[in-house]
Structure formats: C-alpha cells, structure tokens
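Let us practice reading a record.
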Amino acid sequence: VVRVLGEREAEDLADYLSQNGFLVRYLHDEIDPVYRTGIITDFISGIINVLVAPIDKLILFQSHHKEIFFN
C-alpha cells in the first residue's frame, strides 16, 4: 500500500508503476463505489500487488479490510 497526498498523485503514481511492470490500481472518491469494492477485493486476493491511495482513503481501506477479516 502506497500513500500519497492527493487523488491526482495516486493516479499518476499508479500509471508510472503500471508502466514499469507492477500490478497496481489507485483508489479514491472519484471511483464508482462498486468498482472500488472490486479493487479492494482484487488487492486482498493478490490480483493487484500495489494499491495507491490518498491518505484519507487509506483509512477507509483499512477499516474495510478489518471488516472483511473480523466479521
């Protein structure tokens, strides 16, 4: 998980990492909620190796991650 300050930085870094061979996605508010859930699921299952998100979205991801494993 890579934390950045803004949504645009998340997109740019994810593009750069993808061009250099990483299986990566970015996560932020502008992404449709259904698609966001798919990104998180893919990351947890190992389909995506790197997740790039603004710091505030990382907190939501961590909360969602805990819910998946502790519910």
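A brief commentary: The helical segments are 7-19, 33-45, 55-70.
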